């Protein structure tokens, strides 16, 4: 299956076991030395006094990419990094 990043950005990221909505993809991180996809980057919800924050979901935690949502195994980090 092929999917463009433009299409991926429109899918909401949800934790499979709890149904918690994490947001929408903002970016992807790659390891340039081996060409491996490392993480899905999401914008954190809410406002910050210090600028925009982001959450990184390791790619190994992505369980399934459906028609409308991206299911992840767990919420790796409850806080923004």
Please, could you describe this protein's structure?
By secondary structure, the chain is mainly β. The protein has a single domain (5-72), classed as SH3 type barrels (Roll), CATH 2.30.30.240. Helices cover 5% and strands 43% of the residues. It has one helix and seven strands, in the order αβββββββ. The protein has one helix at 5-8, and strands at residues 12-15, 21-23, 25-31, 36-43, 54-58, 62-65, 69-72. It has a four-stranded mixed β-sheet with strand order 2-1-7-6, with no helix packed on it. A three-stranded antiparallel β-sheet has the order 3-4-5, with no helix packed on it. The longest helix is centred in the N-terminal third of the chain and has 4 residues, at 5-8. The mean pLDDT is 84.
Give a short overview.
With about 80 residues, this protein is mainly β.
Number of domains: 1
Judging from the principal axes of the Cα atoms, what is the shape?
Answer: globular
Mean pLDDT: 84
Strand percent estimate: 35-45%
List unreliable stretches of 5+ residues: none
SSE topology:
Blueprint: H1 5-8, E1 12-15, E2 21-23, E3 25-31, E4 36-43, E5 54-58, E6 62-65, E7 69-72
Parallel strand pairs: 1-7
Antiparallel strand pairs: 1-2, 3-4, 4-5, 6-7
Key features of this structure:
SH3 type barrels; three-stranded antiparallel beta sheet; 1 helix; 7 strands; 81 residues; single chain
């Amino acid at each position: 299956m092929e999917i463009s990043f433009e299409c991926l950005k429109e899918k909401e990221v949800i934790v499979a076991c709890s149904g918690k909505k994490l947001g929408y993809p903002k970016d992807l991180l790659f390891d340039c030395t081996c060409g491996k996809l490392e993480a899905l980057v999401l914008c954190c919800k809410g406002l910050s006094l210090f600028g925009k924050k982001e959450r990184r979901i390791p790619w190994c935690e992505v369980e399934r990419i459906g028609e409308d949502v991206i299911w992840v195994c767990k919420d790796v980090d409850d806080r923004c990094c």
